[in-house]
Amino acid sequence: MGDDVGETVERLRGLRVRRAQLDAEELALLADISAAVGNDRGVAEELTPVLRVSTREVERRIDDGRSVMRRMPWLLGSMRTGEVGTYGVRRVLAVVDPLDDDAARNVDALLAERLADAPETAWQPGNLTQRVRRLVEKVDPDGQVERARRARAERKLELTPGEHVMSSLEAHLPAEVAGACYSRVDGMARSLRHRGDQRTLDQLRADVTADLLLGHDPGVAPPEAAAMVYLHVPADAALTISDERCELDGYGPIPAPIAREIMTNEHSTWRAVLCDPGTGEPVDLGRTRRRPSAVIRELVRVRDRECIMPWCHRPARHCDHDHERPWANTPGGGSTSVANGGPRCRRHHRLKDDPDWSARYDPVHGIARVTTPHGATYTAHRHPVLTPKSGRREPTVLGVLGHRTTAADGHHRRDGHPAR
């Protein structure tokens, strides 16, 4: 039975490759037709019954085909070899869309170098997009602030009718605001769940959101840090000495000027973290007690930022603090320390104890290694919080910004002070 399932998994892998190759052929044909006809709207209307998708979707595919053919030939080649499909390519194209053609081709070339020996999980769309964001920042650092300001000015709320008397309400917000909103709703939902509410967490989050928007009492106050998100800002960037890379927890790199605007907001709370400049990692804090202290949990979240599974991007603040070596109050037992802790979302925390899975994480070196029940092994490496610097040995101060809201009126408050 196990061999049969393994063969089926390999057949699925082959289907993914063939689908990506067909996606590449379709995009190339659409780009050729667009170039020959020169009337995208007319072509899209004509191809709507041919492709049996909406006219808007045909237009998007034409845009994607033209962009990937002209601006990112290596990415198109990766589709033709089956490495990445339409969904992953579309997410990459959204990141490079504001760039001019030369800059986009530069990103394409750098991406080819970065992925030459990368693990298979690097092709997962979320991981691929994070890598491309960093390359866009590297290729066009001067344009990143303008791109961010333009995107933040286009914030909006959309209502999309769905099926079975349901609809979706989607808010496009600045990343730190959206993160704070979700954290607050999630904290209130979990509080209700802990009080014995029988609704699922998804139902509770949806119901709490509706209650808050409609001005109703959701029946619970948010926990103290319920609307907290983290922003990693090197001291040099905080002091405007440099525009060194900053990172928003659960999102990725953001421009230093945007980070400083968030940082200097009157609603911000600061905490200082010492980082080793040689590795870019927060300094370890050893502990031996069973229950992780607030300091340990906080430092692990700052260091790892996301669930340690190679394809999971759930922010660490919404994950369980897990002992990588099981804790035991006996010689040889795993200690409760930063060097033995890692964030795992609830789903992957449970998966760790499944005997059919092997999911191991080295917190010190930031290496996650996962083996599935049918023998596939995936490896991921943690990105340091700061870019390691040679020739410096003194710890560097990294500001970790908390952005939170009050329970009473939804306004922000300030209960800390800048790190020094």
What is the element layout, followed by pairings?
Elements: H1 2-37, H2 40-51, H3 55-71, H4 73-80, H5 86-96, H6 101-114, H7 125-139, H8 144-153, E1 156-161, E2 167-172, H9 175-194, H10 201-213, E3 230-234, H11 235-238, E4 246-248, E5 252-254, H12 256-263, E6 268-275, H13 294-304, E7 320-323, E8 341-344, H14 346-352, E9 358-362, E10 367-371, E11 377-381, E12 396-403
Antiparallel strand pairs: 1-2, 3-4, 3-12, 4-5, 6-12, 7-8, 9-10, 10-11
Helix pairs in contact: 1-3, 1-4, 2-3, 5-7, 6-7, 9-10
Number of helices, where a helix is a run of at least 4 consecutive DSSP H or I residues: 14
Strand residue percentage: 5-15%
Computed Rg = 23 Å
Quaternary state reads single chain
* Class inferred from helices and paired strands: alpha+beta
Distance between the termini: 61 Å
Main sheet specs = 5 strands, antiparallel
- The overall strand count is 12
Low-confidence stretches: 284-291, 392-401, 403-420
Shape: globular
Overall pLDDT metric: 80
Q: Can you list the strand order of the major beta sheet?
A: 5-4-3-12-6
Measured as a percent range, the helix fraction is 40-55%
Q: What string, H for helix and E for strand, traces the elements in order?
A: HHHHHHHHEEHHEHEEHEHEEHEEEE
Protein name: DUF222 domain-containing protein
InterPro entries: DUF222 (IPR003870), HNH_nuc (IPR003615)
Organism: Prauserella isguenensis
Region (Disordered): 328-358
